[in-house]
Amino acid sequence: MKPTAINPGRRNFLTGRRLSSPDRVRPPWTRAASVDAACSGCGACVPACPQHIIALDESGRPALDFTAGECSFCGACADTCPEPVFDRAITAFEHVAVIGSSCFAARGIVCQSCGDACPESAIRFRPRLGGPAVPELAADRCNGCGACIAVCPAGAVSASTRPLEAAHG
Ligand code: SF4
Ligand code: SF4
Ligand code: SF4
């Protein structure tokens, strides 16, 4: 499965540089088609986000940077947008989090930061002999908030297309 996002780096976000990754995570309650069709590039959603995770990409469209923080689903981006880009009736995100092979547990280092941060208790740790417990992510519980991406010290978590068997909403 090909990850769909997102490691543009916190520095880019803080310095106001635009995101350059070819893959995007768009704001909640939007889809690529609605952003492409209706976003005027006004940028109103960028300062509206209290989590400071929205930046404009090189096409002037909003993209999320989960390395800077998680989405709290506050709705400020949707409330601020003057165009028909957001639809609060749809599932906020199509992606879920995926834990990659660079997780510290694979290198014998104890870490449970992602599990501690997850508001949905979607990450459990499976004990094993001879090494630290290994995180396992239940995609059907994940709401895509990105909290686990923001806190992972190994950069091991990314957003990826929701598996078909876990699709809902
Ligand atoms: S819902 Fe709130 S926290 Fe999430 S991207 Fe929109 S403004 Fe930011
Ligand atoms: S926060 Fe990152 S390094 Fe730590 S257990 Fe989770 S995936 Fe592994
Ligand atoms: S994206 Fe949010 S809900 Fe999903 S596993 Fe990470 S912290 Fe939990």
From TrEMBL:
[4Fe-4S] cluster 3 binds at C142, C145, C148, C152. It is found in: Cytoplasm. PROSITE patterns: 4FE4S_FER_1, 4FE4S_FER_2. [4Fe-4S] cluster 2 binds at C71, C74, C77, C81. One of its GO terms (cellular component) is cytoplasm. The keyword Iron applies. The keyword Ribosomal protein does not apply. Residues 31-59, 60-91, 133-162 form the 4Fe-4S ferredoxin-type domain. GO terms for molecular function: 4 iron, 4 sulfur cluster binding; metal ion binding. Keywords: 4Fe-4S, Cytoplasm, Iron, Iron-sulfur, Metal-binding, Repeat. Transmembrane segments: none annotated. [4Fe-4S] cluster 1 binds at C39, C42, C45, C49. InterPro entries: 4Fe4S_Fe-S-bd (IPR017896), 4Fe4S_Fe_S_CS (IPR017900), Fe-S_Ferredoxin (IPR050572), NapF (IPR004496). Its cofactor is [4Fe-4S] cluster. Belongs to the NapF family. Could be involved in the maturation of NapA, the catalytic subunit of the periplasmic nitrate reductase, before its export into the periplasm. HAMAP family: NapF. Interacts with the cytoplasmic NapA precursor. This is Ferredoxin-type protein NapF. It comes from Bosea thiooxidans. The gene is napF.
